[in-house]
Amino acid sequence: MYNKTIVCVYALDLLCSLRSAYLATPTNLKIRHYLIFLRSFYFLEHVSYMALVGSFSFNSFLFGVLSCIGTAFLAGLCTWITLKKHTLLLSQRAFADFVLSNLVLHLVIINFLDRFPSPILNVAFMSCKNVA
């Protein structure tokens, strides 16, 4: 058996090292990790709602799940790019890549589900579909 005092000392050392690492982490990186955590939590919320309620609104479920997974993946990828070489220009480019790739992701998801959020987009895209 382990000595309880030694285990407590190791646990306190671990907590102190985690706290010091957390305090040394830049604020923008904390915000990005919080975004990834929120998107992962929303994914679990969508899946649990679908498991409890059923498949009544399957299109909404697909849109929510794909949006959560895609945004969390893109946020993680852009965070990794920023951490690889930390310069101001690369950080701004990673943010621009994140915004543009999220725009493309959500347009693809909306087009895939064939549901547009506003009547203006619906009329504009439907008129483009009729031309082709």
Automatic annotation (TrEMBL):
Location of the protein in the cell: Endoplasmic reticulum membrane
Superkingdom to which the source organism belongs: Eukaryota
Job of this protein: Subunit of the oligosaccharyl transferase (OST) complex that catalyzes the initial transfer of a defined glycan (Glc(3)Man(9)GlcNAc(2) in eukaryotes) from the lipid carrier dolichol-pyrophosphate to an asparagine residue within an Asn-X-Ser/Thr consensus motif in nascent polypeptide chains, the first step in protein N-glycosylation. N-glycosylation occurs cotranslationally and the complex associates with the Sec61 complex at the channel-forming translocon complex that mediates protein translocation across the endoplasmic reticulum (ER). All subunits are required for a maximal enzyme activity.
UniProt pathway annotation: Protein modification; protein glycosylation
GO cellular component, one term: oligosaccharyltransferase complex
InterPro entries: DAD/Ost2
Biological-process GO terms, alphabetical: protein N-linked glycosylation
Organism listed in the record: Brassica oleracea
Protein known as: Dolichyl-diphosphooligosaccharide--protein glycosyltransferase subunit DAD1
Key word Transmembrane present: yes
Similarity-based family: Belongs to the DAD/OST2 family.
